[in-house]
Design brief:
heterodimer; A: alpha+beta; Ubiquitin-like (UB roll); DNA polymerase, domain 1; 2 domains; 5-stranded mixed β-sheet; 5 strands; about 35% helix; B: alpha+beta; Uridine Diphospho-n-acetylenolpyruvylglucosamine Reductase, domain 2; Uridine Diphospho-n-acetylenolpyruvylglucosamine Reductase, domain 3; Enolase-like, domain 1; 5-stranded antiparallel β-sheet; 4-stranded antiparallel β-sheet; 12 helices; about 25% strand
């Protein structure tokens, strides 16, 4: 039973089929089986937040979930935040606010912020700080990231999206 | 940083889960939210031969308040569900206030109340809340169903009254008096880190305005969450006030059993514990008066 399992995964609106060992984490499955390498692996024990993806609307650590556990779920990765070569409004805000440098942590921040804003469309700055407290950035610093998220929330409210 | 091989089963009923753990023996483990077990597996500190995943068992999830206003929370209810549930804010405001201190949003989206209790980390918040509220932990296993009081549940670091093959099914919190004063506070280096010390406190007043019942519990200050009975006893029969709170905090600090580690020294933890007891009692009193 440790052998590979045939698995159907719903990622970014596309249904994929793959074979995985039970021990393969969702993060490794996304990267290695589905070639969705936007999801990054930093610490692999749930501390850094780089591997955050959205599973059934909730931001989760994909390094702490096995791929077999995601078989009936709707998954969104950073690749699913905008169509093909375009940027989402949140991604554009990260660009405008210089909210990334090396970019390693960025996919985790984006997925975390997207799930958070869908739950709380008009957050205070403090709530944004708290929401991203589980994501570690080692170069940009958090202020521009918070600015980008707060700005996105404001723009979405203004445009009624 | 990858877990070793294991068998995986995803039963849809408690009965099936119990049968699977019996079949796969000593090295099989139940998987709840996985926010502690999976890191341990990734580090290969835990190497279960099989995982019995409880996430598909609908009977283990849910929040309900019974006719006597007791709060029932299914063991596989996620921490984030407790945080976002409006009825818990009334049915147990202390629990509701403690939950946002647990790790980060992404962890709370997966972690479960039953998983936290079964894991029994001495710095975890939920074990202390269960302890200070005198909740009952409902257990189902090969010997049938049983209920264990929180005082008897936590036996040591990562050690509980759960025996081989048993699952927590539900946690039952006693009725919360509407007038109860309460507070939770903890000190950690960064938001979401494990607390170096944390305190949960509540007290009730009688008709004459004297404290008739109280609860004080600490996390990060011993091998298990601790009830600080020396502090509780000081409060009983006295009127709330800064002097009484200071005396209760001093007494409560004698019940702490802190250890030194890389995060904080024992001396620091004892000092902070005393300060937090005093601060919680004051906050509780100010909020309700």
């Amino acid at each position: 039973m440790t052998a590979d399992r045939r698995l159907t995964l719903h990622v970014n609106g596309i249904t994929h089929s793959c074979e995985v060992e039970p021990r393969m984490t969702l993060a490794d499955c996304l990267r290695e089986k589905l070639d969705l390498t936007g999801t990054h692996l930093g610490c692999e024990h749930g501390v850094c937040g780089a591997c955050t993806v959205i599973v059934d609307g909730a931001a989760v650590r994909s390094c702490l979930m096995f791929a077999v556990q995601a078989r009936d779920s709707m998954i969104t990765t950073v690749e699913g935040l905008a169509a093909s070569d375009t940027l989402s409004d949140l991604q554009q805000a990260f660009h405008d606010h210089f909210a990334l440098q090396c970019g390693f942590c960025t996919p985790g921040f984006l997925t975390t912020a997207e799930a958070f804003l869908s739950e709380n469309p008009s957050p205070t700055r403090g709530e944004v700080q708290s929401a991203i407290s589980g994501n570690i950035c080692r170069c940009t610093g958090y202020v521009p990231i918070i600015d980008a998220i707060v700005d996105t929330a404001k723009r979405r409210l203004e445009s009624g999206k | 940083m990858k877990p070793p091989k294991f068998d995986y089963f995803a039963p849809d009923s408690v009965e099936r889960a119990l049968a699977l753990i019996a079949e796969h023996g000593d090295h099989a483990r139940f998987l709840a939210g996985g926010q502690s077990l999976v890191p341990m597996m990734n580090f290969r500190v835990a190497t279960p031969s099989a995982l019995i995943d409880l996430n598909g068992i609908a009977d283990l999830r849910g929040i309900r308040i019974d006719d006597e206003h007791r709060l029932h929370i299914g063991a596989m209810t996620r921490t984030r569900e407790i945080e976002m549930d409006a009825q818990i804010a009334r049915a147990n405001p202390l629990l509701h206030a403690a939950v946002p201190n647990i790790a980060h949003m992404q962890i709370r989206n997966r972690g479960t109340i039953g998983g936290s209790l079964a894991h029994a980390d001495p710095a975890a918040e939920l074990p202390a809340i269960v302890l200070v509220c005198g909740a009952a932990i409902q257990i189902v296993g090969p010997g049938g169903r049983r209920s264990v009081g929180a005082m008897d549940f936590f036996e040591g670091i990562f050690e509980t009254a759960l025996r081989d093959g048993e699952i927590i099914s539900e946690i039952v919190f006693p009725t919360w008096p509407a007038a109860r004063s309460w507070a939770f506070d903890e000190i950690s280096r960064r938001e979401g880190d494990f607390a170096m010390v944390g305190i949960a406190a509540w007290f009730d007043l009688d008709a004459s305005g004297k404290i008739s019942a109280s609860g004080l519990a600490a996390i990060g200050a011993g091998d298990t969450p601790l009830r600080l009975s020396s502090g509780e006893q000081i409060l009983i029969g006295r009127s709330p006030g800064a002097d009484v709170f200071a005396r209760a905090a001093e007494a409560a600090a004698t019940d702490l059993q802190p250890a030194s580690d890389i995060h904080a020294s024992a001396e620091y933890r004892r000092e902070v514990g005393e300060v937090l007891v005093q601060r919680c009692l004051q906050t509780a009193w100010e909020r309700s008066s």
